[in-house]
Amino acid sequence: MTRLLLIGPPGAGKGTQASRLAEAFAVPAVSTGDIFRFNVKNETALGLEVKAFIDAGAYVPDSLTNAIVKDRLGEADAAAGFLLDGYPRTTDQVAELERLLESAGTKLDAVVLITADTDEVVARLLKRAEEQGRADDTADVIRHRMDVYAEQTAPLIDVYTSRGLVVTIDGLGAVDAVTDRILEALAERGLHATVTI
Ligand code: ADP
């Protein structure tokens, strides 16, 4: 029954850590970025609607993003916990998540903030561009995504900090080392993984 959020700038390694943490806590990882990319790739109605925003490094409108998260968290496998990666990213999304949790009679256990040095994350994203060819991993779009993060998402950290939920983790270093840091910090808060990874 663990409900976690992962927050961090583009390139901090959220996606990689999300799937590992989800496995460790035996909960589904829900990534809004992955859901959007899947829909773009398959040219669904949602995909066609969101493609231009994503390619430009802009946020998808809250109405669309909130709707897909509401649907996804309403699925059976999310009833006993979840790990949200890349959501909420705006104050409106924070409010929507609050409503969803309240109506389910549940609450968040922790917000994992993965930090990373800007030069390092830009270098990582440019490398990923070569490897995966993501349309939003060009130098200009990366810079824009960082700005949008600083403006719209970084302020959420204060909101969750004031609720005593934030666990800050340095995202630099080997993938395993970062996972261990997160698991250790969560265990210190009484949140123990159920599966050894
Ligand atoms: P990154 O964190 O590296 O930017 P993501 O996969 O989390 O990668 O997101 C990729 C893109 O998907 C974002 O730039 C944005 O266009 C869209 N997106 C993902 N999550 C959200 C969200 N919660 N709200 C609005 N747009 C989102």
UniProtKB/TrEMBL annotation:
Keywords assigned: ATP-binding, Cytoplasm, Kinase, Nucleotide biosynthesis, Nucleotide-binding, Transferase
Binding site for ATP: 11-16, 128, 173
E.C. no: 2.7.4.3
Region (NMP): 31-60
Entry's transmembrane regions: none
SUPFAM superfamilies for this protein: P-loop containing nucleoside triphosphate hydrolases
Pfam families xrefs: ADK
Protein localization: Cytoplasm
Catalyzed reactions per annotation: AMP + ATP = 2 ADP
GO aspect biological process, one term: AMP salvage
Gene3D superfamilies documented for this protein: P-loop containing nucleotide triphosphate hydrolases
Biochemical pathway: Purine metabolism; AMP biosynthesis via salvage pathway; AMP from ADP: step 1/1
InterPro entries for the chain: Adenylat/UMP-CMP_kin, Adenylat_kinase_CS, P-loop_NTPase
Gene Ontology terms, MF aspect: AMP kinase activity; ATP binding
Cellular component, GO, one term: cytoplasm
Function, in words: Catalyzes the reversible transfer of the terminal phosphate group between ATP and AMP. Plays an important role in cellular energy homeostasis and in adenine nucleotide metabolism.
Domain characteristics, as noted in the entry: Consists of three domains, a large central CORE domain and two small peripheral domains, NMPbind and LID, which undergo movements during catalysis. The LID domain closes over the site of phosphoryl transfer upon ATP binding. Assembling and dissambling the active center during each catalytic cycle provides an effective means to prevent ATP hydrolysis.
Family the UniProt entry places it in: Belongs to the adenylate kinase family.
Quaternary structure (record): Monomer.
Name of the protein in question: Adenylate kinase
